Structures are given as structure tokens and as C-alpha cells.
Amino acid sequence: MSRTTGLKNVKFAPHAKRMALALGWRLRATVTPNLALEQRVKNKTILITGASSGIGAQSARRLAAAGARVVVTARSLDKLNDLVQDINAHGGEAIALRCDISDLDDCDRLSNQLIAQAIHIDILINNAGRSIRRSAVNSTDRFHDYQRTMQLNYFGAIRIALNLIPSMIRQGGGHIINISTLGVQTGVPRFSAYLGSKFALEGWTMAVQNELSHHGIDFSIINYPLVRTPMIAPTKAYDHAPALSQEAAVAWMCDAIIRRPKRLVPASGVVAQALYQLLPKTTEMAVNIAYQLVPETFAKITVLDDERRARQRIPGKQT
User: Fold this and answer.
1) Which secondary structure element, helix H or strand E, spans residue 193, and what is its range?
2) Which of 185, 210, 202, 217 is nearest to 287 (CA)?
3) Is 194 an annotated catalytic residue?
4) Per-domain residue ranges for the chain?
5) Which is catalytic among the residues 194, 224, 238, 291?
6) Fewest CB within 10 angstroms: 69, 124, 272, 316, which?
């Protein structure tokens, strides 16, 4: 990319074009959402990370049915192959490529594999993620919890994106969707490791989208509320908690692809942000009281205490 200086070198036309297109796609998404999705993804190649199950797998099926070629990736190649076989059996087109997004070298290998196979990605969905539910006071000797979430949710996600951005610029555009959480708006307790990584991903997204909009590359952040997926299954406290269905989550994803909004967030997230701005201390007190009332679960605390005592008995032992 050449260096530009002076107002005469600033590109205004792409912004006017994008604004006009945005209005048209918003209308189509409202009137004929299914047709709009087909028009948006037809002959497009979409890379979905973390696609072996949950939102990633269901989105792959929906987008392939709408006419997209989907490239699905995850650590489990067996699950990916089953997904690809199912999609292809129903008339879709899918390709499985194994990748551990938390391994940056593996991210680069995936990108090189895409180049070698002449697969040009039009839409990237950074869906792979890791969530850890644990209070900070119980994480003081578990710094690796923070490292693991950052490695996958932030470093891996932006490594894939950075590898694809040059080709998107050459193609004249693209769309990057980064999956985040409602917790960014609510500051939900016991998720400091998870939320820290998602805050980082959102900060990167907001900065880079301001750099690349004139190249026709759009960025969308989806702040999902709790979704009934395998990722939340280990947290028994969520068994009876209100949660978005996977079908509804996929509908959000499709809407993001059609309209390319900067952010999709439920109304509760907007309200939470307003309360934090208007009544920060009162809101903090209410959330803290709720935190104190909800147990960490005795089973988890017992396990944590046992692990901590075991490490303390072994000088220099770290995990």
C-alpha cells in the first residue's frame, strides 16, 4: 500500500458507495431476509473457525444452504469431516481444514494452505473461543487461565484476520465478523479472563475497521448473550438460565452477514452500558451483591483449593 499525504489523496467515494449499499441491504434484510442472504453469499467463500459444533457448525450449514462455499476449521478433523459430508450430501459445498487457532504457527499454516489451494476468503467468521468461569480471587495462582483465553480468543483470531486482510484488499473488499459477548457490556463477574480477551478483540476490531473502511473491508462485532452451546455445558449454573437457542444465534449471524453492522448487541447490553455511564457506583453495588449471592459452586472451589495446596507443597511447581 502506498503512502498517501494531503487531502487530494483521500478516498471519499468508497464511503459514499458503502453508505448507499448499506441502506439497500438493510431494506432487503427486513423485507426478504432469506433472499438477501442468498444474494449476499452466492459465489462467496466463508471461513468459519471453531466450526466443529455449536454456532459455528450450524452457521456453516445455513450459509452453505444459502449458496456459499464454506471452509470450516477446528481442532477435531473427524467432527469437521462429518459436518462437511452432511453439508455436501444436502447439496452444499464445504471444505474441512484442521487448525488449532490457539497455535499461531498453525494459523499461519492454515493461511498458507488456503493460498496453496487458491481459496480466496470473502468473509471470515472468528467464532472459535474459550470461556473460563472463575473469580479473580481464585485465579491468583492460575495466570495461565488468562494466557489461554488471550491466546485463542485474541491472538489466534487476529492472526487469522491479519493473514487474510492483504488478499481482501487485493480483492477489493471483504467482511470480518468477530464473535464477542454481552459480558463486555455487563462486566459479568467470574469471567475476567474471558472478558479481558474479548475486550482486546473488540478494541482491535474498532481500530482496524477505521483504517480499512476505504478498502471496502467491513468489520462486525456480535455481542451474543448466553447461547445454549457445548461451551457452556460444563457450567452447571447455566442449566436453567435463560439462553439464546443455536437457531436464533445463527439468525443473528446471517443478519450480520447481510447488513454488515458495526455491532449486534441485545437491548439489555445497551441498557447495561447506559446504567454504567449514568449510575456507575449503584450499578457496581447491585452487580457485586448478585456476585456474592451466587456461589462459585462448592465443587469447583474444593478442586481449586486442592490444586492450590498441592502446588504449595512442591517448591517452584507451576501449572
Assistant:
1) helix 192-212
2) 185
3) yes
4) 7-267
5) 194
6) 316
pTM attached to this predicted model: 0.87
Query: How distant, in Å, are the alpha carbons of 72, 82, 96, 178 from that of 88?
Result: 13, 10, 11, 26
**Which residue do the cell numbers 455436501 mark?**
88
Q: Using an 8 Å Cβ cutoff, are 162 and 124 in contact? A: no
CA distance linking residue 219 with residue 45, whole number of Å: 16
| Dihedral angle of Cα 109, 115, 118, 121, to the nearest 10 degrees | 90
User: What whole-number distance in Å separates Cα of residue 39 and Cα of residue 257?
Assistant: 11
Residues 115-170 pLDDT 10s: 999 999 999 999 999 999 999 999 999 999 999 999 999 999 999 999 999 999 99
Nine cell digits for residue 56:
459455528
Q: What span, in angstroms and rounded, lies between the C-alpha atoms of 111 and 97?
A: 10
229, 54 Cβ separation under 8 angstroms = yes
194-242 pLDDT per residue, tens: 999 999 999 999 999 999 999 999 999 999 998 877 666 666 666 667 7
